[in-house]
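Human: Here is a favour to ask of a fellow structure person. Comparing notes only helps if you start from a blank page. Give me a protein, with the fold worked out from its sequence. Please set it down just below, with no commentary around it:

Assistant:
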Amino acid sequence: MRLASNIGGFFAWSARQGSALLGFGVFAGLLIPPLAAGMHWFITPNVVSLMTLVLLRIDIPAALAHLKRADRLALIVGFHLLACPLLAWAVVTPLHLDPGIASGVVIFATGCAATSGAAFARLVGLDPELTLLATLATTLLVPLTAPPIAYALMGVDLAISLPAFMTRLALVVGLPLVLSLIIRKWAGPARLAPHGPAIDGAVVWLVVLYGFGVMDGLAARLLNDPLWVIQATIAAFVADFGLNIATTLAFLRMGKRPAASAGLMSGNRNMALFLAILPAAADPRIALFFALCQFPLFLSPFLLRPLYRRWLSVV
């Protein structure tokens, strides 16, 4: 009993230190290549576990309230999948960037929201329910929107196989949904509620372990062309925070918290899907750019949390 209490206390502490731990995760995976290589196999089980815990922490009445405002959700999803790529293309085209960076930025802007979006929203005091619903919607729709947009704007063929995608979707969304419903039914709200902070801490560590895995092989690539890597890293941060700001401003009339929630998920995109389906003929630096996008994603809670707290506190 005492061991369980100590474990729960550790995870609750981890939730409070979540932003710093996420930053540690992405840099540790880069600086310790054997650690990254050893955790690469865990990426898919990690995503399933992460989504299950995120769903356990969702306030179902709050999520249903958002569904009743389907028009607002549709606007956020449409802006995320359609307007953001056009905005990114309009910005990078006159800059004459390296083709790998330019294509990477635009394709990044076509992506669905990161699986960890709802957990990050909770970490920084935003709306996890709105973020989760928008994340699920963009994940469902991205195979229909990203390939034609990426090809039309940058000439990159994203050959997303719908059968393979639906199989993966069933694994990383359907299975966690079933597991979370079973756990909710078995435990009940009264038993789950006291463990909320510990669940949040477990989510943090799963995201940290994911950060280890996605850094696999990146250190070796960095040594080959450090100047390009610096330029691409700057572009990744600008793309992440630029889309965040643009989306927040676009939906500011909805209120600060919903607008900031939409902005956070717009800046943090899921690049794992694109890494898996980039054609062999594509510029290999596009894939490297996607890997570098993990830095602003993992650092965003640490960098933005104090800004969100200050901004949301201003009436």
Q: What stands out?
A: The domain at 12-313 is CATH 1.20.1530.20 (Na+/H+ antiporter like fold).
